[in-house]
């Protein structure tokens, strides 16, 4: 799934997709945003507004 339109996605679905991609395809959040050419701050802010914070040690949003 392409994350380039992440700003218009349902935040729960977005969190689920990002966590799945981090678990299965990318070794870091930085690698994920670079691959999809999206802004890390905007992604994190979008998810934070929905109540999800990035847990670097677990490589997932919770």
Automatic annotation (TrEMBL):
It comes from the Bacteria. InterPro entries: DUF4250. This is DUF4250 domain-containing protein. It comes from Veronia nyctiphanis.
């Amino acid at each position: 799934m392409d994350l380039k339109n992440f700003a218009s996605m349902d935040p729960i679905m977005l969190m689920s997709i990002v966590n799945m991609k981090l678990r299965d395809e990318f070794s870091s959040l930085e690698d994920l945003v670079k691959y999809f050419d999206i802004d890390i701050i905007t992604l994190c802010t979008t998810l934070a507004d929905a109540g999800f914070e990035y847990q670097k040690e677990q490589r997932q949003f919770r």
